[in-house]
Amino acid sequence: MELQALLITFRETLEALLILGIIITFLKRMNHPEYTKYVWLGASLALLASLGVAFVFQVVLTSFSMMASQIYLKISIMLISSMLLTHMVFWMAKNSRDMKGKLEGKLKAYITAGSVIGMVIHSFLVILREGVETVFFFAAITGGNIQLALQSWGALAGIIIASAVSYFFFKGTMRISLKTFFRITGAMIIVIAAGLLVQGVGMMQDVGIIGSVMPQVYDVTWLLPEHPTDYTQYLRDTGTAPLISGDVGIFFTALLGYAATPSLEEILVYFGYFAGIFLLLWTRNQSSQKKQVDNKKSQVVEDAKVVHSKKVVNV
């Protein structure tokens, strides 16, 4: 859970800080630093709103627990979080290149209109989106205990690392491009999304929402149990301790969706998810390459027309 919290908090905080940095840098470059305080006002209000969302979310989760329906809410959160994480990675891959230009276009409009309210609302919505996503993902990786994730060293470390990266990026000492940076962290997020998806499928099978053709394809509890409890039970039942501690199993379960006794459906969903992601990326790259080729051909045709027209004029 700690590593998941670190990666999610790092990713969301970094995205928020980079966007704020772009806004503030642009305002200073346009000689309008007086608007900076309104940007920070919107960001502060969004942070408070995000904490409010976390509180409400925790109350709802507790209510479902009292109604003995928390398992169904947990399943929903895991599946939705997996989809949101996947969408977030693809969205950032698509928009990271044009994000700066789009932001600056909106800011120019606000400055021209003298809209302080627009500046506050824009920064508020940017930070609120990241905050709400973080709360939702924390609910998924902790099984509903959002407070546990908020108080973890992973969340704190994620914020600190993201702040340091943002600082050095805007100071010009960070040479790596945003596109490459988000590609690397995106790959890690995809792994977490796959794990959440598989855990959701496993929980649905546990409560009988879906069945299984083969409930247990293999059992490697002797090697790496999923949890210290599984370690203790295996030791009690067989008199032999598993080779690796259950604490290590918790780590791999949280990070990779590891299961010591997976069903056939869990295996198919896990590898099918990565196959689907690969297919989507390949299709998008093919489309992008085709578009680049078409643009080059169009440019060559236009250049040829210009050259031809100049020859006609000279004649």
From TrEMBL:
UniProt-recorded Gene Ontology molecular function terms: ferrous iron transmembrane transporter activity
Main location: membrane
Membrane topology: Multi-pass membrane protein
Pfam families tied to this protein: FTR1 (PF03239)
Cellular-component GO terms for this entry: high-affinity iron permease complex
Protein localization: Membrane
Cross-referenced InterPro entries: FTR1/Fip1/EfeU
Domain of life: Bacteria
UniProt entry keywords in alphabetical sequence: Membrane, Transmembrane, Transmembrane helix
Keyword Transmembrane helix included in the entry's annotation: yes
Family: Belongs to the oxidase-dependent Fe transporter (OFeT) (TC 9.A.10.1) family.
Protein name listed in UniProt: Iron permease
Gene source species: Chengkuizengella marina
